[in-house]
Amino acid sequence: MGAERDIKGLILERIRSLLRGQVTGLKEGIFGLRLKITLGN
Q1: What is the SS3 assignment for 9?
Q2: Alpha-carbon gap, residue 8 to 1, rounded angstroms
Q3: What domain of life (predicted)?
């Protein structure tokens, strides 16, 4: 029971960190695009 809970927790943590990374990547990408547009104009 305890081991099962630990495994589920690890999987959830992995998913959360992956999602966080994707969100951060998106924000950086959007920021980079805005910067390019600003510098271009």
Answers
A1: helix
A2: 11
A3: Eukaryota
